[in-house]
Amino acid sequence: MPLDSKPGLPDRQFDLVGTRPLRPDGVDKVTGRARFGADVTAPGMLFGQILRSPHAHAHIRRIDASKALALDGVKAIVTNQDFPDLTPGNADLQAVLANVMARGKALYDGHAVAAVAATSPAVARKALALIEVDYEILPHVTDVEAAMLPDAPVLHDDLFTEGVEPKPTKASNIAKRHRFGHGDVAKGFAAADVVVERTFRTEAAHQGYIEPHACLANVRSDGSGELWVCTQGHYMVRNTCAALLGLDASRLRVTASEIGGGFGGKTTVFIEPVALALSRKAGRPVKLVLTREEVFRATGPTASTCIRVKIGVKRNGKITAGEAELKYQGGAFPGSLVELGAMSAFACYALENVDIVGYDVVSNRPKLAAYRAPSAPMAAFAVESVVQELSDKIGVDPIELRLKNAAEEGTKSAFGPAFGRIGLRQTLEAARNHPHYKAPLDKNQGRGIACGFWFNFGGNTCVSLNVNIDGTVGLAIGTPDIGGSRASMCLMAAEELGIPYDQVRAIIADTSSLGFCDMTDGSRVTFATGLATISAARDVIGKLCGRAAAMWGIPKDAVLWEKGHAKPAGDNAGKFPPLSLKQLAAEASNTGGPIAGHYEINADGAGVSFGTHIADVEVDPETGLTRVMRYTVCQDAGKAVHPSYVEGQFQGGAVQGIGWALNEEYVYGADGRLQNAGFLDYRVPVASDLPMIDTVIVEVPNPGHPYGVRGVGETPIVPPLAAVANAISAAAGVRMTEVPMSPPRLLKAIGEKQT
Amino acid sequence: MLRVKLGGPLMSQAGGKTEFEVEAATIREMLSRLGELHPGLKPVLDRGVTVAVNGTIYRGAHLATIPEGAEVYILPPLVGG
Q1: ipTM score assigned to the predicted complex
Q2: Torsion-angle region of residue A108: left (phi > 0), alpha (psi -120 to 50) or beta?
Q3: Residue A122 contacts by C-beta under 8 Å, 6 or more apart in sequence?
Q4: Side by side, which strands form the sheet with A105-106?
Q5: How big is the A-B interface in CB pairs under 8 Å?
Q6: pTM for the whole thing?
Q7: Distance of residue B27 Cα from the nearest chain A Cα, in angstroms
Q8: A128, A187, A285, B69: which has the fewest Cβ within 10 Å?
Q9: C-alpha span between A736 and B33 (Å, rounded)
């Protein structure tokens, strides 16, 4: 759907888009009325709990639940026997099924092996302790490089590396090899004056959402069911659960609760089939709420990685070649998303010679889940660290070096396609012109720059827009609101209809009330659901004009819509006083019936997104503690529909990236068990750790959206790892190649430099 | 005639070939012809791919038309957070 603004004509002016009204869900959230995943109950409800493997890798020889079943108050127990493989050979669904409940082998510490539904949480907990599981403990591997070794314990006997020829005959932990690039890197490196090659490592980070996974399942005796669930995609939950449990999609109605954070971690199915299976077996509703420890042990963090990067540059600042080898482990099942790291690694640069290889590796860790711009932050950490080092070596300002090599419209990306209209250069210029970039630094302080990229995408989206009898408007959308999207949708609908913002109310419809919608992911909602909302509003406007035309007795095309009113298109159309939306709504029953608009689309044309970050840090050389003193995000939003929420996305992404850079990591013991499954030992940044994150919204319109919108939610987490690393390097004189750059690691590096 | 380029694991699954010429007017036709011509690619194509046509990324709109002479890339599926 093209931009409304046309070349050579004045840009479209907006009345509401670009303003900052209060979010419609705000009052409920601050008063505690909003209903999250664990906030609902049902008559006769049981409490579900899951028994998890204490071993990283083990054969399950036998499960004996007889003692637990005999316990008073226990109503149902499920094991893998209750989850037959009903998937039609779909490897992705089979992986979900095997992750939901272990099949033959427990593949990681925390892998579900059985579940109980009981009349109270205490009884359920007691029943779990009575389930006897006979394990044969197997050798395990949790490190990505160790998992790739020829003698590593193999998780899956049927996993043969894809993407290599000839196809291997021996199973291994390497699921896929990806390759991207063009040109001749050997020639490019030969032409370089300076070449830097380094290897970087990043540990897994969790999305750290405040609300644990929770759901309430209710399967009736006729096989129909309902599910209330905290998720980023209730249609995905419905389809996956229906496929795994052999239910008709039409007989499973899924409602998305309010969501206390997702960041990609709630784009998966973990507990929902378990709750449904328990409810089906017990014949009663079952509520299942994970503990924080379970969230860490059994829901997906990011990949952990090892990335080698080599870049060559001429003394004039022109990059001649880039090469990268990325190894990502994504837990016990294929799908580390290394390909997204490989594709995004050099996306910020116009390179004639580039070669990128990525390895998708399995290990004895929980199945990965997406986390904001999945896989891109680690790749950017490696590439942007080397770019900084090159700028230091040739004595060129880091922003200048990036501007000399910045991707722009028409640039052939490192992953293949040429970019359309993009705003990387504008974000770099915004950073260079920001007062932050020129501000003085004190002792032990340093400044770092880094750029980031994310693809953004559209996807399947339905929207219904209903005109109420009083002229207010109800908007039904199918993408859970995880970042203020209801406010943005109301703004866009009101903008089109020419009515006040508070006359439009948006709800997240359940799966039985609106056609299929993809998840809230990929920074797609403001783009795709927004596009569908605008189109549904224009559908309504067409109908309103039709009603006015009928009331006036003139052709429909002789009526136009302007600022909330139907008007004759010109003098020839006749002289009639304008009819407001309110007047037309009041007459609807007598002029043809209810007025509603609808739109459904698989939206394409989402514009890619770039950002540039500036980080100032202060390093305490005595302790290795790093404090972020100042931080600025400059990012292209295309068009900011609600600038406050765009800024909020910039700030939230930056904060999560800073946490990953400095503190957050999964720590595994020699036994393959997670050592820090709680917020005390897995430390996310809190408000007192950080300065106010400054933001600059750059607006280079996306030609694929009527207002020019680009997704903004993911790009801001891409640069922080490298921006902070580059600032630490400037402050402490050490190049950190491992994330997180926690005090012990930094202190060690400082010590090694001094000796 | 379209020139189609491959990225990701597909690069190693067509006998080392990374560029193909196929006759097709839509993404759906292009994927179907490519699978017929190179059966080794078919399982990966069937599992889902991303297609870029002149830089615009298509995840599922397979009825989209491909202009003559367009730059077409087949890439791994995109997911987001």
Answers
A1: 0.94
A2: beta
A3: none
A4: A105-106, A58-64, A132-137
A5: 118
A6: 0.97
A7: 13
A8: B69
A9: 49
